Amino acid sequence: MTTASALLTAAVTALAGAPKEGLGEQRDSRWRGRRIVRVGEAWHLGALLLTDTHALATAEVLRAADPGRRGYTAESARERAERRAEALRGGFDEGDVVHVGWSVIDVDAVDAGGSSGPLALVDGVPSVRWSVAGGFMPLEAYLRERVALLRDGAAG
Description:
There is one protein chain. By secondary structure, the chain is α+β, with helices and mostly antiparallel strands. Helix content is 31%, strand content 33%. The chain has helices at 4-14, 75-89, 107-111, 139-155; strands spanning 21-29, 33-45, 48-50, 55-57, 60-63, 97-100, 103-104, 115-116, 119-122, 125-129, 136-138. The strands form two sheets. It has a seven-stranded mixed sheet with strand order 5-6-1-2-3-4-7. It has a four-stranded antiparallel sheet with strand order 8-9-10-11. The relative contact order is 0.21.
């Protein structure tokens, strides 16, 4: 039986040289204010983020940017602009993709028959829930497709 950990390790090997995106964490300080600082980088594969050593569940994705002086018709647009500015203040470059609020997936728990984040063992097959409303699909096929998309995008 192929395990989730074996599939993820093979994906990391296949991704060598492909572009990574920033992992950020929110920090608050009296002197520097609220900002999102870089704590690492990962390959973004849809519902998953892979580092050299961990699988993470994707959460908020944003692009670092100056909010400028715009009028907003919705409070949510103002909040998104502020989050982009927090990444800029935290040291990300303008335009960098930043992942915030991600969580570490317990791959050993999945291999043992349980679930963690978007991964689960379904009828003995390591599987991924690719969206909140979506069902599970085999992790092997998901990774094959996502790795190919990322590698093809990097080549073009």
